[in-house]
Amino acid sequence: xxxxxxxxxxxxxxxxxxxxxxxxxxxxxxxxxxxxxxxxxxxxxxxxxxxxxxxxxxxxxxxxxxxxxxxx
Length: 72
Prior knowledge:
By secondary structure, this protein is mainly α. Helix content is 97%, strand content 0%. The chain has one domain (1-72).
């Protein structure tokens, strides 16, 4: 009976260790995904800022052109 209890305790420890490894792996995966997503978000933010600046320059150029056409 003692041997069976010891075997059961050993099996439970092994399962707990495996569960801990799985949790650690999952946390690592989530951290990596979070970093990748954060990097993508930074790239997207910079792209949107550049597009906004380009749109402002285009609007200014079009307004200047239309103003020149009106006075011509």
